Amino acid sequence: MISWSDALLALCFWVVTFYLFRPSALREQAWSDRRAFAPRLLALCLAVSLSFQVDPLAAAFDSLVGLRNLSWLLAYLNAAAAAYAGVLTLVVMGQRKMPQLVNILTVATFLALMVFFTALMRSGEELHNHFPTSAPALGFREVLYVSLALQLIFAIRIQWRLLEQEELPTGKLRGWMVMSALLAALVFFNARGVAAYIAFVIPNWSLYGPALSVSGAFVAFAIIGLAVSFAPRSWWRVPVQALARFRQLTTLRDLERFRKRLVGVTAPLPWSQPSWRERWQNTPYALYCTLIDILDRRLLLQAMVENQEARVTPTHLELAQLLETVPDTHDWVELVEYIRQVARRAV
Amino acid sequence: MLFDICLELEIPAEVIPMQLTPRMKLVLDQLVADWATLTPAAFAQRLEEFDGRKIKFIPLPMPAGYFGGRVVVVHDEDTTPDDLVFYNATLPLAHQEHVLIHELAHIALAHDTLHVTPEQAEQALQNPARAAEQWACISCRALNGVVPDSLLAQQDQEAEMLARLIFQRILAARQNELLKRSSSQSYLDDSLRRMGIA
Predict the structure, then answer these.
(1) Distance from CA of B183 to the nearest CA of A (A)
(2) What residues in A contact B20, CB-CB < 8 Å?
């Protein structure tokens, strides 16, 4: 039976592959450009690898070719190649040299997989989502898990340095997404490696199923995270705008609470206020009006304190002190941010 | 979560509904061509072109509690009077801009104010604290010391409503400009920086 989650993860990277191989992108960046070549190789190899790990597809391919478990070999060779391409992508981005150990590790992985495959060819068809039943099947898996875990450690080290150098917020966000995906993948390979070994030694191990599910969640997170990190910049405006909208509404709530407190100790608001509809549809305007009300009340409060009016209480003094200095700027958004911090201290 | 936040947004009890007057509509619909770049100086220039009078902005170190105000300086019968707009120079710049647009809204709405001679205006510049105390038009914003429901209070509310509607259009126009480049690297970076996310 087809595992839809496996199929969807493969689909994720086919989408990325088609995006990176679209005609306009191919025209813009030549194949010889390593900055374009490495991510394309990563996406393509990962898409192929994930596709060959969808059990019914793998079985159909093997029966078509007539070689048992060939889909396994192709899936794992592509996974190792994708890991190499992943490290290469980060190396190119950071303008560094490829670690020699990664080259050696990749070649060794390829050779070890071929060796185990010769034994695996003679055994029965192995299912990907089933625990290993033979030593070659276990060895075949462990080679990939250990190799990819080591490559991931290299990748995480390089990505960490890239993140330290990154200055643009969008770059940082994208970088952290890649970093989270790499860490999740590292957890996945370690968990799967250990679980496969225990399941082979103790065939009735009851926790193999849960271990598969938990590690499956990590790999799903890793693949989706990695796929999203390839998303074009224009797509990022959707989550960024949603976050900005959420922040506007929470800021309006904080400022209105603070204004209410200031109105209580100064004077009632004399002006028409934005309607509910305007608050929802035109939140920046509602924020602006609230900001001006707060700044008005700040001046009234200062006058009350300076003139030593009889009604001045410790609350007046506390609020006046909180609002004593505000940024002298034309940028009202900066003022809103500042007043929000004051409001959070005051309310 | 969003729904909870909406419920928590409180409309103040002191909301005073106010109608858009034909004069306000005229100002909003016809006086300004480009809202996105409108500044108090540009608005004043537009009013000068419309009315044929001179508007001068005068920053003053006013005492606490005073925002700004406007007087009409009458030279002689043959000369068009000037509008002097005083504003508290100690206010944050964004607040100063709002106060200036509020005073310009009084001019746009043809509200009357104190008429002074050039000599009286000069004296006021020499002693802004005294002028602020003597001239109610400088102290009325936020109903500080003004009788509610008086003509002065009513005109102040009208001017403030127009000032806020002007800023509503300025903000909307700037928002549109931002939306045009909402996929750009700089827009996304600025948004994330402002939110303190990265």
Answers:
(1) 5
(2) none
